[in-house]
Prior knowledge:
Blueprint: E1 2-3, E2 33-37, H1 47-61, E3 65-70, E4 83-86, E5 89-92, E6 95-101, H2 106-115, E7 119-122, H3 127-139, E8 143-146, H4 151-154, H5 164-175, E9 180-183, H6 186-194, E10 201-203, H7 220-224, E11 234-238, H8 247-260, E12 265-269, H9 275-281, E13 286-290, H10 294-302, E14 306-309, H11 318-325, E15 330-333, H12 338-341, E16 348-351, H13 356-368, H14 370-384, H15 389-404, H16 406-415
Parallel strand pairs: 1-4, 2-3, 2-7, 3-4, 7-8, 8-9, 9-10, 11-12, 11-14, 12-13, 14-15, 15-16
Antiparallel strand pairs: 5-6
Amino acid sequence: MELHDDSSLGGAVLGRAGRPAARMPRAGLCQKRVALFTGAYNHIADGVSLTLNRLVAHLERKGAAVRVFAPTVEDPPVDHAGTLVPVRSVRAPGRPDYRVALGLSCAARKELKAFRPNLFHVATPDLLGRSARKWARRWGVPLVASYHTHFSSYLKYYGLGLLEGALWAYLRRFYRPCRHIYVPSPSMAEVLRHRGVTGGLRLWQRGVDTTRFSPDQRSLEWRRARAIDDDEVVVSFVSRLVREKGLDVFAEVVEGLQARGVPCRCLVVGDGPARREMEARLPETATFTGHLEGKALARAYASGDVFLFPSDTETFGNVTLEAMASGLPTICADATGSSTLVDDERTGLLAPSGNARAFLDATACLVTRTRLRRRMGRAARRRAQRYDWHAILSRMAGYYDEILNPHRARAQQAAGDGAACSEPALMPAS
């Protein structure tokens, strides 16, 4: 793994009119030389950063060259894939674990020119993304984007709902030059279409490691170490502990179960700025593990019985898919992301967004009905097995080929290569 520092970058290699010189194609194919711009890569371990690291690793295994332009910190929590070029950034207000990219420095621009990209991929519509758009336009390099965060759904949690119209106007302008926009779920694509972001939508779902996240990881010893009896039903929540993940609804459900006398335990896996508040609100009814990863996370998932995730801000729902792979029935908001993953009344239950009473009724149903809970858990596991990372990332490489190697892309589509899940690869306009 290589980390480039802004202060020690070499000179630029330029083509005509200041554009990066293109590499000659080999065997009739143009090598992918992808410049990826993102606000999250190695300084935070979240769904966006982990997904992009998987993509970069896959592309490099397949012979592509990639440079990642992103904020970083002195001791990053993610052992990143590929070559990272740090960009200037500041701490996000109120969220010090996140950073806000401020654009490309002179040194980063030199590195970008020397790299000679033939495709720009923007993952965040921020100042860094705006800078990437400018250079893509100036050099005549194709621009694509991926939509990872449902920004408008966050506004209500921070008292900024009046800004929704202005935000969508900005996003429409930002994504207009993009040849492709990669969206995590059909439900998210429909929201974008409704808001006027329609050009070049492509489906880029997420995968799950069904060997790591598996019912086989269930451990009675792990439960006993946390004073959970073997026959207790455990209602689990796994996520960063931030307001927009539906924490208020989750807490109301746990309190409601206790008030109804429904026998169960609550397990909260994750950390974040709202942890102290949640611990104070649920002191006796919840076990808090803090942040877990790897085998410890997989064991925590599988050692639960019901997965309750009321978040209505998801574009896909990585934690929901991991819970499904672990054999848990899921109770989620009938909103973007989750509504695509959860087959209502088969693999879990969907409840109206923000409706604590509906979530309470659904949770009580699965806690008290053992056979139904187990049947849904088995069905959830089968559905999760359809989400194969290799096929999904191969599809993404195929999307790049639509622009860089269209003849190859057409041949692969005709042969059915790179198909993932049962959803359509292309998102036709409605």
